[in-house]
Design brief:
Blueprint lengths: L1 H11 L2 H18 L12 H5 L15 H8 L4 H15 L14 H7 L30
Length: about 140
C-alpha cells in the first residue's frame, strides 16, 4: 500500500522535474555503489567540442549537470545565484524585521500575472460545472 502511494506521488511530479530528480538519484546511487566514479561524470567542453568526444560516460550518461559541478568541486554560478535568490525571496522577508528586497519588474507582472477575478462575473450555464447553478441559494443559518 505504501508503495502505491509513493508511486502515485512520484507520477504527479511534472515530467521534466521527475526526469531530473530520477537522474540525480540514480547518479548519486551509482557513485555511492561505486558503479561509476565522480571522474567519469566530469564534463569537459574542450574534449567534447574540440576532440569530438561523446557526451556520454563509459557506463552512465552525465545528466545531472548541477550534481556534476558539486562532485568536481568547482564553482557553478547558476547554483549560487539560485541559492541567493531563494534566500532573498523566501527566507529573509519572513524573518523578524525582514523586508522584501527583490521586486518583480512590472513588465513581467503584466505578461505573466493573471487578471483579478471580477466579483460580479456570472458564468454562462454551459460554463458551470455540470450545468448547475452552483453557489446560488441561501446561506446556512441566515
Amino acid at each position: 500500500m505504501a508503495y502505491q502511494s509513493l508511486r502515485l506521488e512520484y507520477l504527479q511530479i511534472p515530467p521534466v522535474s521527475r526526469a531530473y530528480t530520477t537522474a540525480c538519484v540514480l547518479t548519486t546511487a551509482a557513485v555511492q555503489l561505486e558503479l561509476i566514479t565522480p571522474f567519469q561524470l566530469y564534463f569537459n567542453p574542450e574534449l567534447i567540442f574540440k576532440h569530438f568526444q561523446h557526451i556520454f560516460c563509459d557506463k552512465f550518461p552525465s545528466l545531472a549537470v548541477g550534481q556534476d559541478e558539486q562532485v568536481k568541486g568547482t564553482f557553478n554560478p547558476g547554483i549560487a545565484v539560485g541559492h541567493i535568490y531563494f534566500f532573498l525571496e523566501d527566507v529573509f522577508p519572513n524573518q523578524p524585521g525582514g523586508i522584501r528586497i527583490l521586486k518583480t519588474p512590472s513588465i513581467l507582472k503584466a505578461i505573466f500575472d493573471t487578471p483579478d477575478e471580477d466579483p460580479n462575473y456570472n458564468p454562462l450555464p454551459e460554463e458551470r460545472p455540470g450545468g448547475f447553478a452552483w453557489g446560488e441559494g441561501q446561506r446556512l443559518g441566515g
